[in-house]
Amino acid sequence: MDLGAPGTSIATIGRNGAALTGTGTSNSTPLVAGVAALLLQMRPEATVADLKGWILNTVDPLPSLAGRCVSGGRLNAYAALSAAQIRPTIIAPPVSCTTAAGGAVQFTVTATSALPLTYQWFRDGEAIRGATSATLTLNGVAAADAGDYTVVVSKSSGSTTSQPARLAVAMPEPGRLISLSVRSVSRGRSTPLIVG
Q: Do 159 and 123 contact (CB within 8 A), yes or no?
């Protein structure tokens, strides 16, 4: 036997659809098989050796299982899934946008991981100080804010960098002076002087 798994008073459904509880290896084996299925769904390229390693190397060691099974521990589904997830997965990257000067813009990233994530935003490869959440908000946007924005999403066992999202800042076009006239009364004269 390689590892222990919960097998006492496991809730199940009987052949007639009735709720039952069971005890024994027939009830613990499906838990291990379920974790293996989740691992394979998450990492379809995994080999049987990979699955076995993720499961056996992440057990909760228990004195009651020491010497009674190869791993000396009980199945820990969370730890196995966490170990298999090498890097966070970005499922919704930030999106390019254009805004007027003085406006506000928000870049958002959505990522998944079995472990807590950290974020760091960059503009043109330079880290933005204090930009460490899933959303980056820029207020009072100026021409200097234009560029490519990326975010590095990290967890303890790896990181993933988003595709760049380009911020374009639309500057107002200077107006064209069509006509200008100045009217003034010169000193000592009552007749206005008009220049235009």
A: no
Token pair for 38 = 């989740």
pTM, to two decimals:
0.51
Question: Can you give the length of the chain in residues?
Answer: 196
Q: Which residues of 70-105 are buried (b: 16+ CB within 10 A; e: fewer)?
A: ebbbbbbbebbbbbbbeebebeebbeeeebeeeeeb
pLDDT at 150: 98
| pLDDT at residue number 151 | 98
Give span(s): CATH 2.60.40.10, the chain: 89-170
Domain 89-170, what fold? Immunoglobulin-like (2.60.40)
